[in-house]
Design brief:
The complex is a heterodimer of chains A (about 525) and B (about 110). With about 525 residues, chain A is an alpha+beta fold. Chain A contains 16 helices and 14 strands. In chain A, a hairpin with a 2-residue loop joins β10 and β11. In chain A, α5 packs antiparallel against α6, α6 packs antiparallel against α7 and α13 runs parallel beside α15. The radius of gyration of chain A is 23 Å and the shape is globular. Chain B has a 3-stranded antiparallel β-sheet, with no helix packed on it. A two-stranded antiparallel sheet of chain B has the order 1-4. Classes of the chains: A alpha+beta (about 525), B alpha+beta (about 110). At the A-B interface, α4, α7 and α8 of A face α1 of B.
Chain lengths: ~525, ~110
């Protein structure tokens, strides 16, 4: 097992000096991760890699941690002939989906994994097909396999199965939910996602950093700023590009506008989860006002096409910025009034309290992030804990609650939305005229790695980016906040009633598209 | 509480609806919205910079035409930013639906290479 105080081994050239990169033997990986976590580090992500494009001869997995002393990346090389290693998820459950994804897309085998079923590639994809391997072409369709999905079901006297989806009675994304229930009470929920897997990580390989951006930004429609920003920060790390102050403050402003419209929309969706129509209508109208504000400020209701490596692609609209403060003051007032109307309704709050409880220990174990963590007594917020860009100069107030139920997630969102209004207004005040974009300072060396995290509306989305030849993308991995939180949703439901599932689901309001990619 | 119910009833009466009457009336568009990329043929010098810049290969340039496939375009604005002649603008046109795949390819005649 690697010694935590041992000197850095094999730090790649061009690697930022404050990141500890170590080679670990396959047999020691899980134990080392577990030991570092005991020492206070937190698991961030596990990334599958094919080393053949950067001079290696096999596969590799890399685990990113935020400690114990400084950011750490543990790398394990795996031979093509036998790419197996003892599973990290046995000890660190938050790594479960990461390992299943790497297993599907690269073919490495996490030995002893608690749930080794397929995740990303459904059963009809043929055995032995691993699309993220460098010798697999993205343009050749593989033949259909002949296996079928075997749901995880609970059995016993009075236990019945309730399949829901993937087509739903609403404008939501596809997911199959298999409830095992006794009467109205859920015993187990098996969530099957990845119906919208588009192979985006394969699609950007070989593209220039600029050409990859529109794909990264469109991984989903509602965290576009967060994903473009995490990617841009990773590119700026790789190229050593400092960005101008106007770009920093604009990015903070856009990040908070994104959080704001999402939170307001999600508050409305929680009302929709119990059929409280006046709340749906009022909060939906507020969201529409925010989308129009986005349009006036950035020319796009969902804020696409603004954040780019080096700063911003285009400058924000001065007329829109001028109208920001007054409109946000009015929205702040109306939001407070709409939220009050929800909270004062005993019938509504009776449904929200005690429903979908995630205790803080469970949230920590499963790696919950964002509102899902903060409403379960974990006051984690990357904007304050590891500030990036203008958050270094303007501290975000962190809201937390300990109840862990739908009501807690409602309250946390409502308060965070008001805090976002404060941050947008303050960022607007500090936004000075000037350059909004810097040219990338250098072409990164082959195999250089940049890792960045951004606190988006649903929590921390992380990007792992490795440079190929001539400033192209060799490997891009997006671990979105939704990906991190889906296992938490599945764990929040057992013990509650089947009809409460839509409400619990909406209290997390996760995205399928950026989970599936 | 009855007062709450009254408040819920009165609230929408105090606010005009946000919903517009589109398509009966024109849609409300933001002042800097980025819709269909449009070419000014008088400025185009057929450098094909936009063709190279487009990340989705949506633009096809021939001697006589500049064609954009709105089935591929993601309105990212790379063509607009790249054009050395300032000939492309993401305009305000947004009603781009079609019953056929072919009709999604919008063709602008140009003068040809100079």
């Amino acid at each position: 097992m690697a010694d935590v105080d041992a000197p850095i081994a094999d730090a790649c050239p061009g690697e930022p000096p404050d990141v500890d990169v170590r080679q670990v033997h396959a047999a020691d990986l899980a134990g080392t991760v577990a030991r570092f976590v005991e020492l206070g580090a937190r698991f961030q992500m596990l990334v599958g890699l094919d080393e053949r494009s950067v001079g290696g001869d096999g596969l590799a997995v890399e685990v990113a941690l935020d400690g114990p002393h400084r950011p750490t990346r543990l790398r394990t090389d795996l031979p093509l002939a036998d790419p197996s290693y003892p599973s990290v998820a046995r000890l660190i459950p938050a790594a479960s989906w990461d390992e299943r994804e790497a297993k599907d897309l690269f073919g490495m085998i996490p030995l002893g994994h608690p749930d080794p079923r397929r995740l990303v590639l459904h059963e009809r994809w043929p055995a032995g097909y691993h699309p993220l391997r460098k010798d697999v072409s993205a343009n050749v369709a593989p033949p259909l396999g002949d296996r079928h999905y075997v749901p995880f079901e609970a059995h016993g006297e009075g236990v019945y199965q309730l399949p829901v989806g993937p087509i739903h009675a609403g404008i939501i994304e596809p997911g199959h939910f298999r409830f095992s229930a006794v009467g109205e009470r859920v015993l187990h929920l098996d969530a099957r996602l990845f119906f919208t897997h588009r192979g985006l990580e394969k699609l950007v390989e070989g593209r220039s950093f600029a050409d990859a951006l529109p794909v990264v930004e469109r991984a989903c429609g509602v965290c576009t700023v967060s994903h473009a920003l995490a990617y841009s920060i990773a590119v700026e790390m790789l190229t050593g590009t400092p960005i101008p102050p106007r770009a920093s403050w604009s990015r903070l402003l856009l990040s908070e506008l994104e959080r704001l419209y999402n939170h307001v929309g999600d508050l409305g969706n929680i009302c929709a989860g119990i059929g409280f129509q006046s709340g749906v209508a009022r909060l939906g109208a507020l969201k529409e006002r925010l989308l129009r504000l986005n349009d006036r400020v950035g020319g796009h209701r969902y804020l696409m096409g603004l954040v780019a490596p080096g700063g911003l692609r285009i400058d924000l609209n001065e007329d829109g910025l001028a109208s920001l403060a007054a409109e946000l003051e009015s929205i702040s007032h109306d939001l407070a009034s709409a939220v009050r109307a929800v909270i004062r309704s005993a019938g509504v709050m009776g449904r929200l309290h005690g429903t979908g409880v995630v205790p803080s220990g469970l949230a920590r174990t499963l790696g919950a992030t964002g509102v899902a963590a903060r409403a379960s007594g974990l006051p984690d917020d990357l904007r304050r804990d590891d500030p990036y860009g203008a958050y270094k100069e303007l501290e975000a107030g962190v809201v937390a609650s300990s109840a862990g139920d739908v009501a807690a997630r409602f309250h946390v969102r409502a308060q965070e939305a008001q805090e976002s209004i404060r941050l947008v207004t303050e960022a607007r005040r500090r936004l000075e005229p000037g350059s909004f974009r810097a040219a990338l300072a250098a072409v990164p060396s082959l195999g250089a790695v940049g890792v960045a995290g951004v606190e988006g509306p649903r929590g921390v989305s992380r990007v792992w980016l490795r440079a190929g030849p001539d400033g192209t993308v060799d490997r891009f991995h997006l671990r979105s906040a939704s990906f991190a939180n889906w296992p938490v949703v599945a764990a929040a439901v057992p013990g509650d009633l089947v009809p409460d599932f839509p409400l619990i689901n909406k209290s997390f309001e996760l995205c399928y598209a950026c989970t599936d990619r | 509480m009855p007062i709450d119910i009254l408040e819920r009833f009165l609230h929408p009466l105090r606010r005009p609806p946000l919903t517009g009457r589109y398509p009966a009336e024109p849609a409300v568009l933001g002042p800097t919205m980025r819709g269909l990329p449009q070419l000014d043929p008088a400025r185009c010098d057929s450098s094909a910079t936009c063709v190279t810049a487009c990340p989705t290969d949506a633009i096809v340039l021939t001697a006589a035409t500049w064609a954009i496939d709105v089935g591929r375009c993601v309105f990212c604005g790379a063509c607009e930013a790249a054009c050395p002649q300032d000939a492309i603008r993401l305009g305000r046109r947004f009603e781009l639906a079609s019953r056929t795949r072919e009709a999604l390819i919008l063709i602008t005649p140009i003068g040809g290479p100079r």
